[in-house]
Amino acid sequence: MTDAQIFCMIGLVYLTAGLGSCCNPGFYQRLLKSFQENPAVVFLSGLLALVVGFLLVTFHNVWAWEWSTIITVFGWLTLARGLFTLAAPAAVMRLMAHFSRKPPFFMRGGFIMGFGVIFLALSVLAR
What we know:
Layout: H1 3-23, H2 25-37, H3 39-59, H4 69-87, H5 89-99, H6 105-125
Helix pairs in contact: 1-2, 1-6, 2-5, 3-4, 3-5, 4-5
């Protein structure tokens, strides 16, 4: 995959999740609540983050003063999140319980959409 494709993929995921969170906050609130109550889902999300992070770090480990380094940093953060989730699932569940209360859900959706827009803009710059 090219840098532009990776930026676009990440941007679409964040933009869509943020938009869904803003348009249907009740659903996403219930989703977050069920996530924090279901250890199997926490495990699977950690496993998915570990695999995605590992793939990004393995196939796109670029450390230079250019836009593509953002993908590498994102990969390392995703890998760390996966490791943390698998190593300390109870702590992740407590964090999810804490964050499901604050800030208001629509504000989080706007923040997530902002990340999506930034990554989509980077996909255009990376072409």
